Amino acid sequence: MKLGCIGDDFTGSSDLANTLAKQGMRTVQYCGIPSAPAAPEVEAGVIALKTRSIDPAEAVAQSLAALAWLEAQGCTQFFFKYCSTFDSTPEGNIGPVADALAEALGAEPVIVCPAFPGTGRSVYQGHLFVNDRLLSESGMENHPLTPMSDPDIRRWLAPQTKFAVGHVPAEAVFAGAGRITAELEAERAAGKRHIVVDALRDTDLIEIGRAAAGLRLVTGGSGVALGLPANFGCTPGTPDWAGQTGPALALSGSCSTATRAQVRHHSARHPAREVLAEEILEESITPGAVLDWALAAGGLPLVFSSAEPEVVAAVQARFGRDRAAAAIEAFFADLARQAVAAGFERIITAGGETSGAIVEGLDLEELAIGPEIDPGVPALRAGPRLVVALKSGNFGGEAFFEKAAGVLAG
To answer: 23 with 171, same domain?
Structure first.
């Protein structure tokens, strides 16, 4: 194995695996830390953890354990993957995990670049944009677990890390890899360890990747990994794929702006059932009852709990944020488990926390990377008769659920 990657959630990890596979690296996504060595043909291993919203100390411990396994596979470079909207709170977890990995590897400087132009995420003057909006005006300010109220990545990261935060501006990035390398070194010499690097275009990411060739640790969204495979002699290619044509079920626990639009679009054209958070928390509805509905509905049924921000806030105020989130995740995990047992062969999920819960509920271990459905979302083979799509909340076009079902069918 050449490149070892650690993702802080399951959807983001599949996003990264998709990027690496498209650039020609033989890539496998592991759901948690494997108990056995990697197959010898694997060039990039992506360990998907569920650490984005947990206690920082536990996130650090899990990430270091993942690092130890990847080091044992012979990796020479490491990548810490977080969301392209830098999802975190002022207390972590991005900073603490990046600190721990950097210290364990003796890595400096460390690139920090959440940019993903293919999905509208760009970094300019250290500020993160979603399309033409600052991150704090994109809807992410209403995220139920990690509300992003400040678009300045330098300012948001600073209280999370014990190291000084630097910056490589767009002007230097536009000048190419040589200038980026010089700027990184100048920031390191000035005592800055974590360096936020601007990026507005895929060509910027390629140049950043070239500049990262000699670095032990890179951190960011999947976009900045675009330029890494070439450093290992890989060339772009198309993954082999054979889909499944059995029944499909879409499950959404995301409350993002994009997912709510996708839910509205799908509900107007296909069977859809909303599951209210109150129903789950008061146990007035069961996964078995919802599965019975999905089996009878036919077509491409969607089960969703994707409420507007004010509804989410009211639920959290009544039941508590952590209790509400845990109950919804457990409900969808149980529903997915029962659905697969009942014969569903294509499972489509929306939302990072929801997807992570479903992967754990299905006890998946390895995911083979298939073709891209939408930017950042690949088709994934999870077993002999099971394929899945794990979508981050704000990813995908309006007709994502339909499109995903088609790609998963091959």
So the answer is: yes
